[in-house]
Write a structure and sequence with these properties.
Layout (H helix, E strand, L loop, with lengths): L4 H4 L4 H24 L6 E3 L5 E3 H17 L4 E4 L14 E8 L1 H6 L5 E8 L2 E9 L4 E6 L4 E3 L2 E3 L11 E4 L5 H15 L5 E3 L4 H9 L5 E4 L4 H13 L3 E3 L13 E4 L4 H8 L1
Parallel strand pairs: 3-4, 10-11, 10-12
Antiparallel strand pairs: 1-2, 4-5, 5-6, 6-7, 7-8, 8-9, 12-14, 13-14
Helix pairs in contact: 2-3, 6-7
Length: 271
């Protein structure tokens, strides 16, 4: 937990306790995931290309054990076991993806990890994203910046699209959204330096926050894909909206995140 000490020193007691619990949960889940990496997997399908492995389930159980012990009165919105959000929760809520990048994990592509956010009074106040294979812990606390391990991070200073490295993702229902996905990609690709598609929205957002990417967009996402990453980008000095540049929340299914300097130009292309 030394990695979060510098941030904890400036947080009030409640936010510090929330960050500590979220970090412990993410690190515990990461250990579970890493222990199962490279072994034969038990895979089931929620959709044609939407996978669940034994690591998703085990990681979520590990996360919930830590969080429920620390904050037993908080509600839970989690991808595998508490995924119903027909009504947006009003009270304190954990928003959890136990293993973002499941397809990567199942194929041995080492880019995945848990994402945990805490929502209080309608706002995300803590976000933690952990990359266990790289030993990189990204986290943010509202009003206290974004961090990678023990160092504070900022978005990039890139100020033009043609100098920008951006990322995107493809939705699980791509067979019905293929035309829109490919049209958008076709518009953006010639205008930027390059596009990456690595397959984990939470990590894409973390990479925008630390300046490795200049922007990211994706459609048809869930709250657990974006909640922690939204806070990371905003606390790192970036901007997060929907495709048209309007206000974003994790319950909006489309996201456009950037360093802020290229946001208007990128939104114009995507919308």
């Amino acid at each position: 937990m030394k990695r979060i000490k510098n941030c904890l020193d400036n947080c009030d007691q409640n936010l510090a306790a929330i960050l500590t619990a979220a970090t412990e949960a993410a690190l515990t889940a990461g250990k579970v995931i890493k222990g199962l990496y490279g072994k034969p997997h038990q895979i089931r399908h929620k959709g044609a290309i939407d996978l669940v492995t034994e690591a998703d389930v085990a990681a979520e159980e590990a996360i919930l054990e830590v969080l429920n012990k620390a904050f037993p009165h908080f509600a839970v919105l989690a991808e595998e076991s508490h995924s119903d959000y027909r009504e947006i929760p009003n009270g304190p809520t954990w928003i959890i993806d136990p293993l973002d990048g499941t397809t990567n994990f199942a194929h041995g592509f080492p880019w995945f990890g848990p994402s945990i956010a805490c929502r209080l009074n309608g706002e995300i106040v803590v976000g933690v994203i952990y990359c266990p294979m790289q030993e990189e812990l990204f986290y943010a606390v509202a009003g206290h910046g974004a961090w990678l391990n023990d160092k504070q991070i900022k978005v990039s200073a890139t100020d033009s699209l043609i100098k920008s490295l951006v990322a995107t993702g493809f939705p699980y229902d791509v067979e019905t959204t293929l035309k829109q996905v490919m049209e958008t990609l076709g518009v953006v690709l010639p205008k930027v330096q390059d596009v990456r598609r690595a397959g984990a929205a939470a990590l894409d957002l973390a990479y925008v926050a630390c300046g490795r990417l200049d922007g990211f967009w994706e459609m048809n996402l869930k709250p657990w894909d974006t909640a922690a990453g939204q806070l990371l980008v905003e606390e790192a000095g970036g901007q997060v909206t929907n495709f048209k540049g309007h206000a974003f929340s994790p319950f909006v299914p489309e996201i456009l995140a950037s360093n802020g300097k290229i946001h208007t130009a990128l939104a114009r292309l995507i919308s």
